[in-house]
Amino acid sequence: TGWASVNELYNVRPGELTIVTGYTGHGKSEFLDALLVNLARLHDWNFGVCSLENLPYERHVRKLLEKVTGKPFFPDKDERMTEAELSTAESFLKQHFHFINPKDVEIDSILEIGKALIYRHGINGLIIDPYNELDHKRQSGMTETEYVSQFLSKIRRFARLNDIAVWVVAHPTKPNRDNIIHAPTVYDISGSANWANKADNALSVFRGEDDEVQIHVKKIRFKEVGHIGRVDLRYERKSGRYYDL
Question: Could you give phi then psi for residue 23, rounded to 5 degrees?
C-alpha cells in the first residue's frame, strides 16, 4: 500500500471488493486517492476512476497532482509545484488514471466502461465513489436489502471474473452527537448488513485530533491479505499525502 503500518493490516489483491466508509469530511476519498497514487508509483497499476463527488475532474486531477508531487498546486506559504514538476506529474496521471463520467450513472454502465478500460488500458483497479450518488434502478417490489445484495454481488463477480481490485465508497448514515467520536462500521451504511457480508475487505476512515487520521480495518475475508485492527497515519494538508506515524 505504500505505508508499512497499513501493510500489517490491509493489502490490495486483484479480484477483491473493498468497501470504504467514513463520515463526511473525514477523508475517505482523500485516503483512497493517496492509496491509488502509491499503487501506481510502486506497482505500475492503472485505474478506472468514477468519482462523482469530485466533478469536474479538473478539480480531482489537481488533488492528485499534489499527491504525486508532494507540493501544493496553488500559491501557498509553502513551495508551489514547478512547471516541470506539473508536466511530469500530468504525464504520470495520464498513464495511470482513466476517468469515467457516464451519461447514465448506473452500475451496469460503469462496469461496461470498466470492461472497456481493461481491454484498452489494462486497468488493475476500479473505483466507484460514492454509492450514494449513483442512479439506482430498483425493481418494483424489491426491498433495499435485496437490491444492495444484488448490487454488491454484481460488482464482486466483476472483480473476480476480470481479476481486478474494486473499491466502492459508501457514506454511513448521519451520526448523532454521541457516536461521532467513534469510527463508523459497514453496518452503519444504509441498506443492510450485506455491506459487511458481501465485501472481501472493509475500511473505515476517521479523522482524529489535529492531522491524525485513523484507518480502521473492519473486515478481511482472507487472512493472507491482512487482519482487523486500526492504524494511525499523519495527514499532510498542503499535499494531501499520508505518512506513517
Answer: -70, 155
Taking the C-alpha atoms of residue 61 and residue 169, their distance in angstroms, rounded to an integer, is 18
Cell 476517521 sits on residue: 206
Residue 48, C-alpha cell as written in the block = 478506472
Of 38, 35, 44, 16, the C-alpha closest to 123 is 44
Note the pLDDT of residue 180: 66
Is pLDDT at 237 greater than 60 in this prediction? yes
The pTM of the full predicted model, rounded to 2 decimals, is 0.95
Q: Cβ contacts of residue 165 below 8 Å, gap of 6+?
A: 12, 13, 14, 15, 16, 18, 124, 125, 126, 159
Secondary structure of the chain in HEC code, one letter for each residue: CCCHHHHCCECCCCCCEEEEECCCCCCHHHHHHHHHHHHHHHHCCCEEEEEHHHCCHHHHHHHHHHHHHCCCCCCCCCCCCCHHHHHHHHHHHHHHEEECCCCCCCHHHHHHHHHHHHHHHCCCEEEEECHHHCCCCCCCCCCHHHHHHHHHHHHHHHHHHHCCEEEEECCECCCCCCCCCCCCCHHHECCCCHHHHHCCEEEEEEECCCCEEEEEEEEECCCCCECCEEEEEEEECCCCEEEEC
